[in-house]
Amino acid sequence: MFELISRLREPLSAAGRTNFRQVTALSCIVGVVRGLSLIAFIPAAIALTSGRPAWGMNLTAWLIVLALCALASFITEYLLAMRSYMVSFDFLSNMHRAIGDKVASLPLGSFRADTAGKMSRLVSRELMLLGEMFAHMYSPFIAAIVTSLTMLVGITVFSPALGLVCVLAIPVIAGGVWVARTCLNSGSALKEPPAQELSHRIVEYATKQGALRACGRSESHPMGSRASDGSPARVRTLQLL
Question: Entry's InterPro entries (predicted)?
């Protein structure tokens, strides 16, 4: 993912790259704040249940610490969300401009009957998914890693045995992520071809209205209906697997 993110940074403008660096820094700060907040619950719970100070502070002091962590989290996550959307919008605008310049420079022989459908999906679904990486995936990914590392350090200090168990659980979690990614790729391989065909049929139906109306067939498009019917079937097949 880091290699993909480094490649996606290339279309960003100078302001977009500055915001991207700020997003990375804010994601790390958010991760540390989240980790410290979760760690602070341990002594706070001990102080609450035992009625005695834990880690040198009483329950009131730990509640103040949690309140300060909540305030810091509110500020940093707000700034992070704003910067993430700014990077995403910068990426989308620059990519649309780059795709338009590339298409305008192509010779007419490069365009085929299914080019319109492929291009419509490229500048809609695929490009939006790439833009969502900056807005909804990159910063949570970095923040989750930093949060986990911060919690791992705190748990190890609190209980070395529990910290060792958490370290041993990392390969299990990584294996689960790999299995989920494999299933996701299998699902995409099943539904992507019929989705491209459906997009092409929709564009074809819109551009051939004159001929269809002349033949009295403007109300339905049998080939488009068959293309749309194929996609749910493949999804049901994936669900059975």
Answer: ABC1_TM_dom, ABC1_TM_sf
DSSP-assigned letter for residue 56: T
Cα–Cα distances (Å) from 31 to 20, 43, 162, 172, in that order, read 16, 20, 21, 22
Query: Which residues are within 8 A (CB) of 159 and not within 5 positions of it... i.e. 6 or more apart?
Result: none
Among the four given CATH numbers 1.10.12.10, 2.120.10.30, 2.60.40.60, 1.20.1560.10, the one describing domain 1-166? 1.20.1560.10
23, 47, 37: which is closest to 71 by C-alpha? 37
53-96 pLDDT, tens per residue? 888 888 899 999 999 999 999 999 999 999 999 998 888 888 87
Q: What is the model's pTM?
A: 0.68
Instruction: State the Cα–Cα distance between residues 152 and 165, nearest whole angstrom.
Output: 10
Contact 15, 99 (CB under 8 A): no
Quote the pLDDT of residue 127.
Answer: 75
